[in-house]
Amino acid sequence: MERNETAALIRGGEAVFGLELGSTRIKAVLIGPHGEVLASGSYDWENRLEQGVWTYHMDDVWHGIQESYKNLAASVEEKYGEKITHLKALGFSAMMHGYLAFDREGELLVPFRTWRNTMTEEAAADLTSRFGFNIPQRWSIAHLHQAILNNEPHVKDIAFITTLAGYVHWKLTGEKVLGIGDASGMFPIDSEHNVYDSGMMDTFDILHKEHNLPWRLRDILPQIRLAGEDAGELTDAGALLLDPTGTLKPGAPLCPPEGDAGTGMTATNSVRVRTGNISAGTSVFAMIVLEKALSKVHTEIDMVTTPTGKPVAMVHCNNCTSDINAWAGLFKSFAELIGAKCSMPQALDTMFFEALKGDADCGGLVSCNYFSGEPITGMEEGRPLFMRLPDSAFTFQNFARTQLYSAMATLKIGMDILIEKEHAEVDSLLGHGGFFKAKGVGQKLMAGALHTPVSVMETAGEGGPWGMALLASYLVNAEDGETLEDYLDKNIFAEAKSETAEPDETDMQGFDKFLERYKATLPVEKSAVETLK
Description:
The chain is an alpha+beta fold. It is 40% helix and 19% strand. Helix 10 (260-267) packs across helix 15 and helix 13 (396-421) crosses helix 14 (441-450).
C-alpha cells in the first residue's frame, strides 16, 4: 500500500495487531487487510533460573509487552505520521504449556513455571499411564498433578490455571478463555467435539478424591474458543496495560489467545490436513496435521490441535539455538578483544554460512546442545557439551556445522518415530524461526537431516507474532462461514513466494553419521548431568 493509504487505514482504526511472547523476544506487529506488515516493535528478555525453576516475573511480562507496543507505535508515527488510537482487532500468543495458578483474588500463587522445566517426570508418567494418552512433562496438567503429589500448600487455594497467553488475554479482557491450540497443551482435547476430554477430567478428579480438593478440574481450566470465535474485547484497564500513555482506546475485539504452535501453523499456512511446519528458535518443534489418530501412545510425540481443532502430532524439543547463540557470543567477544568490530548478527551469519563449507559429517566432531532438560532423550537437566576425537578435523567450518546439526538432532530422533513407525503423510513442510534466518542454510541442512523437502516463505521471518495477527484478522475480516484454511489461502498466501530445499544425498548421509555419534554421546551427557552440579 502507498504511505497515504496506509496512514488512512491506521487513522481509521482498520489495522490489526498481534503480539507473541517468545522465549527470548517479545514482538508485536501491525498488519493490513491482506496480512501485509505495516510496522513492528520488539523487546528482548530472558528466562530466569531461580531455585531450580525456569521462570519469568510477571512484572517483566508487562514491561516487555509495553516496550514492544511502544516501539511499534513509535515506528507507526515515524513511518506514517499517525498515532494508534483504535485497532480493528488484537491477538496475543505466547510460549505454550507451563503453569500459572491463581487464587480467587487473582493473585499468582507460585512463580510461573515455564515449559522449560523438567520437574514433573513422575506426574507425566502417571497421567500418561492412566489416560492412555501422552502427557509431556511441560504440560500444565503435569505441573498441577506434580504439585498435588508434592503436597504443595498452594494447591487448595487454586481458582484458575492458565498459560502465559491466557493470562495476558485475561488481564486485557477479563475473559478466562484460551484458543483450542493453546488449550491442547494444557489438557488433552476431544477433537470430535472440540472440548477438553471429559473422561480424562473425571479420571483426574477421581484420582485426587482423597485430597479433598475444593475444586474440580473442569472448573479451574480456561474455557475453549476456536479461531474466529468471540473472545472478549479490550477493556479500559486492558488498554492502559498495553499502552500506558492512554492513546489507544478500548473496545477492539480480541481473538482467542493462542500458543506458539498455533501461530506457527498459521504463519506457514500449515493448518490443512497433510501439511506440516517446523518452528526452530530457542526450542524446536515440528507439527504435522494428521489424517487419522496415532496407532499407539508415543511419549516422544505430543498430540495438540490446530487453532480450529484439527489433531496435530508434534515433536517438541526443549533445546535448539541457545548453544549456537552462546558460541556466537563467545566469537563476538574474541573479535572485539583483538580489535575487530563484530555484532551478534555478523557472528551468527558467519557460523551459519561457514557451516555449509564444513564436512557433511562434521569431520568427526560432536556436540550436545542441552541447556535444559530434554524429555525425548530422558534428560532431566542440561549440560552443553562439545567433544572431538584427537584425529577429528577440527576446523571452524566443521565446528559451526556441528552446532547446527546438534540443534536438529533430537528433533530427528522424534520425527523418525512419527514418519517411520506411524507412517504419517506430509505434503509440505515449512520452516520458520531464527534457525532459518540465514538464507538457504537452515532449510538445506534441515532437509538433509529429516530426509524431507523444506520450504521457507518470504514471510517466515515474521513468525509467530504475524501468525497471531492473522488469527485476529480472521476474526474480523473473514466472510461468514469461511474456514481458516480458505481465508489464509485466498487472502494471505495467494501470491506468497517460497523457496524449497530438496534433501541432498551427501547431507543426508553426513547427518546420519553425525546422529550416530550424537546418540553415542548421550550417556556422556547423562553423566555430566549427574556429576556437574
